[in-house]
Amino acid sequence: MPVLDIGEVAQRSGVPASTLRYYEEIGLISSLGRHGLRRQFDGDVLLKLSLVGMGKAAGFSLVEIAGMFGQNGQPDIPRALLHAKAGELQRQILDLRTLRDILRHVADCPAPTHLECPTFRALLKAASRKRLAYHPSRKRAGGALKTAG
Amino acid sequence: MPVLDIGEVAQRSGVPASTLRYYEEIGLISSLGRHGLRRQFDGDVLLKLSLVGMGKAAGFSLVEIAGMFGQNGQPDIPRALLHAKAGELQRQILDLRTLRDILRHVADCPAPTHLECPTFRALLKAASRKRLAYHPSRKRAGGALKTAG
DNA sequence: GTACGAGTTCAAGTCGACTTGAGGTCAAGC
DNA sequence: GCTTGACCTCAAGTCGACTTGAACTCGTAC
């Protein structure tokens, strides 16, 4: 794997240099060393950044994502934890499907105002009965993702 | 629909009164009026809060969610926007599926360190080629949702 | 050997979504 | 008619994830 200057990493990954520095500061990624002042990264950092991006998209915090890699920066993840995360994701996928279906129904439903549509209310009620309650916010990445180089 | 005191709404929905006040302040929900000082809500607010909860879980900001309801607090959503949101959700679901599969693979893969596993690298590469790049964080709700009363 | 541009540090600022704290008010019950 | 407890307002604080700005330092090209 080639050695990449921070600028190149930024350009190829789309992650701003300031963010790369921030990620290094919190131990999410690490640089090989410096060339003068400039950080040099192993090419693998690009894959790692993809992983980070996906983790963020999945709603994990940077700390959680960092926890998925070992202490030493190698991804060295307890299998059970991974299965647990996958399970979380699965539940989340089901939730999103429910919401998607609700949105689609509402889009096609002719009721004048959606709270008056019995189907809408039923979907909503079913959904809340199944699962949903208040949970204070956590961070997440946006829904629409850009294409990477 | 019965008229509910803020305390009752808080208790039934699991949303703290402080948050309900905040939501009213930003126009996400509205109260019928007051009994003395106390806000009184229409029972429908519970359904609306479910919807808000789902929207948050799906990664929409409170402003976006508010935008799904009309200016006057009635849910009065342009159909096209709804379809667009549903599409966003769909893409997000696919992303989460990819990540879930990656996690599952990693959990079962015998490679000593995951970045060395060719399958892992391939999955990651495919995923990033398909879609993933940097996007600064937006807010989202946690993955594991509590059951509502 | 000097200018340039891309990088550096460090502190502070921002944004969304709330929470917390201090001090005040009101309806209901005794 | 006074106490109590649940609510009120308003300002400020918090947390994660970054970004921004000022002042500085290199390696490279001329």
UniProtKB/TrEMBL annotation, chains A, B:
Select a single GO molecular function from the record's annotations and give it: DNA binding
Q: Which InterPro entries match?
A: DNA-bd_dom_put_sf (IPR009061), MerR-type_HTH_dom (IPR000551), MerR_fam (IPR047057), Tscrpt_reg_MerR_DNA-bd (IPR015358)
**Locate the HTH merR-type domain: which residues?**
3-71
Which controlled-vocabulary keywords does the entry list? Answer: DNA-binding, Transcription, Transcription regulation
Report the protein name in the record: MerR family DNA-binding transcriptional regulator
Top-rank lineage group of the source organism: Bacteria
Q: Which Gene3D superfamilies match?
A: 1.10.1660.10
